[in-house]
Amino acid sequence: MLVCSGMLKKSLYGVGVILALLALTTSGSIIPDNHDKRTQERELSDADHSLNGHNAEYDHEAFLGREKAREFDHFSPEQSIQGLKVIVDKIDSNNDKKVTESELVAWIKYIQRRYITQNAKVQWNNYELKPDDSMSWEHYFNNTYAGISDEELNGMQSGGAFSHKEMKDRDYRRFKLADVDYDGLLVFEEYVNFLHPEDALHMREVVVQEALEDLDKNHNGVVSMDEYLSDMWPQLGKEEEPDWMAEEREHFSKWRDLNKDGVLDAVEIQHWVMPDDYDHAIAEAKHLIYEADSDKDGSLTKEEIVDNHDLFVGSQATDFGEAFKYDHDEF
Question: pLDDT tens digits for the chain (331 residues)?
Fold first, then answer.
């Protein structure tokens, strides 16, 4: 299999949002884009965003899942509302006609886990591995980088900030950390953590390190305000800044730079992207209840959720059937 430089490129999330998708090689094989993997670390920035005010897209993705929130115009608004009612019945696990905060948190975590597990299964299958198989580094490397030498990889630019050699080294570091039993192999659950390190506490180290590397353009081990801002607005210094940049400057100075030395170090980045005291599912559930709980009893009825249809699923039509294709027990 040949690795094409155009195939190993950025995917899902920036530190504004961190990501990972699939890239297709010329042979038709699938290469996981673990590489410019702001992948999940950046998804955590969505959680960070929720500290400073939610946006509709984040709410819909947290409630429905990324894929379902992207499927527009499949149902009429009336059909969409009927689908929402079906979801409410699924969330109400004790059938008491109330959706509590704990039930909503459980649903949001289920949606997140389902997404990352199904994403990992697709890639696992594309490596021609069975559920009970294990993946060696050699198998991953040969199928992702075609066994190309470091010297050759070093000369192949990814189209991003890193060479393929650097991306391979990042993958290897991730692989070693995900291999919790140190046997040199990843079983499927370990591979899920390799692919989605933001969802595993023991992978925190690599999440923070990759976020720092993504932002630290001059490689001095810390992130300046300009590096932080240019990640979100590449035109920094070249074009007039949008209004929201002033808010981001304030966030950097007031909330990110904890020791007020003008830069972000690894400890401050960890506090930002993987804070010990923050759970995005709990924060999102509290937000949704706060917005939709018209009688302020701390829980939601189906009527309150439907009355706030746009908050939960948007006005766009969405195919809800996929949300129930997999049982909770699968995860």
Answer: 333 322 222 222 233 323 222 222 222 233 334 333 333 333 334 434 433 445 666 666 666 665 654 542 466 778 778 888 988 999 999 999 999 999 999 999 998 888 889 999 999 999 999 999 999 999 999 998 886 776 776 666 555 556 778 889 999 999 999 999 999 999 999 999 999 998 898 999 999 999 999 999 999 999 999 999 999 889 998 999 999 999 999 999 999 999 999 999 999 999 998 888 788 889 889 999 999 999 999 999 999 999 998 888 764 333 344 454 444 444 3
218-to-5, 272, 321 alpha-carbon distances in Å: 23, 21, 47
Instruction: State the distance between the two ends of the chain, measured CA to CA, in whole angstroms.
Output: 32
Task: Write down the residue that tokens 């304030």 correspond to.
Answer: 250
Residue 230 vs residues 14, 171, 239, 249: alpha-carbon distances, Å: 12, 25, 12, 11
**Dihedral angle over CA of 70, 72, 76, 79, nearest 10:** -20
Determine whether 96 is exposed, middle or buried from the number of CB atoms within 10 Å of its CB (0-12, 13-18, 19+).
exposed
Do residues 305 and 312 make contact, with C-beta atoms less than 8 angstroms apart?
A: yes
Integer CA distances (angstroms), 248 to 15, 41, 157, 214, 218, in order: 12, 18, 30, 18, 21
Q: 3-state class of 75 per DSSP?
A: coil
With beta carbons less than 8 A apart as the criterion, state whether 269 and 211 touch.
yes
Asked if 86 and 305 count as a contact pair (C-beta separation under 8 A), the reply is no
Both tokens assigned to 197: 């390190």
DSSP bridge pairs for 186: 135
The Cα–Cα gap between 48 and 144 comes to 32
**Separation between Cα atoms, residue 203 and residue 174, nearest integer Å:** 8
Between CA 74 and CA 94 the distance in angstroms is: 31
How many whole angstroms separate alpha carbon 241 and alpha carbon 246? 8
Give the 3-state secondary structure of residue 194.
Answer: helix
pTM: 0.69
